[in-house]
Amino acid sequence: MDSYINKEVVIIGNGPSAISLSYMLSGHWPYYTSQSHPNEYLHRRLTDESELNKSLVEQDLEMLSDGLEGRSINKVSVLFDHLNHPEADFGFENPSTLEWRHRSDKVVDHVVIGKGLPGGAWHSMNDCKEILTISLGSWMQLPDMDIRNWCSEHRRESRVSLSTVANYYNNYVKTKGLMKNFKHFSSVTSLEFDEQTNKYRIDGHDSNGNHFHYMSPRVVLATGNCDRVNRMNVPGEDLPFVLHSLNELETLIAESKVKPSSDPILIVGAGLSAADAVIATRFRRVPTIHAFRRHPEDPSLIFNQLPENMYPEYHCVHSKMKGKFTSSCGYEPLAMHCVKEIKANKEVLLLNMIGVDDTQLTTCVKVKVSYVLVLIGMKPNLNFIKSKSLLADLGIKKNVAIDPRSNPIAINSYTHESLASPGLYAMGPIVGDNFVRFVQGGALAITHHIHSHNNNDPSFCQ
């Protein structure tokens, strides 16, 4: 074990979740400073005499979170969002009720290991200058650094491009002095618990082939959800004209490989990425066929959960998916269709899953395309966890692969510690927090739990 470097915390992943946690572990703590809050009950709890001048890290998060509701399954994520973005779910952009103070005596020695630049998967979208984030720009920012003051791109309504967000995250780490804690272009290949030392062993290598070894009592999984694209597993999916990312679409458009005179591009999927692709192709008047498995009125579709006044372009796509306003516009929706086969001559066979008559017999549609763009989601890769039993026990559903939607990692909602392995934490998409505005709550929960143990202080919520 002589070659192992000891750290108090090792964070695997370097996206917005990991960056937020690194900021808090570096001694930057949030304080409630508002004179009022829309939630009077929460305001009273935070201004109780015994809690005055205390950081949220030092308070009882379970008590503060009690009774709050929001768009996260994790209690502290909801609490933090209520304080950082008051009434955000009603479409308001109210100022944060938090301020950040540096506590040099509370710095935790840690390292953040990521495969690329700080920002994680956002850098895979670094060339996406035309596609806007689903969230308001202010909801994409990290603690104590306003994204609108940072950039000059704030043009179209309240949202910013994907490439702007990627550059903001990388610059945030530099501006906040966190770079010393980040190990870039590095991959973890092994995570194991060592019973002799009662610590985790973390092994890996950088892009130059140099190996690294860490030992730590606490490891945080902040790997995000973009390691591997979901595949259709149909014949022809590996043909060169079949693409799986918005970045590849933007390259096609930039190089004029698709244009109004091209054969249609087939977009497969019914999520926001697919909608972004439709917006991009139709803006360039590229003929588009859009195939998706579900009915457009399905309540589980994300479009049916977004306020129309905040996301008019997505609701425009949704209307077209229903067959409205599509005549002579170069867009053809194929609801409840799935790809059956892609042929080398660029013909695609699509299966109609509901049939066309009362017999419910399926029928097929054949289309000629220029490209196929498959955007049906992504999944994390946790194969570096070497204990198969631990990997099998991580999720809410045991012996089922981790999936942010159907099987997130099972955690204590107030500490984000794994229910399967003490000292192992998880945050971000792999625990169901897919929006950046919620991941900071996970960072607060983990920071709170670590400091409660470091101080062994009964005033902390255990």
Automatic annotation (TrEMBL):
Pfam families reported for this sequence: Pyr_redox_2 (PF07992)
InterPro entries registered for this protein in UniProt: FAD/NAD-bd_sf, FAD/NAD-binding_dom, OSGIN1/2
Domain FAD/NAD(P)-binding: 162-428
Species of provenance: Oppiella nova
Protein name: FAD/NAD(P)-binding domain-containing protein
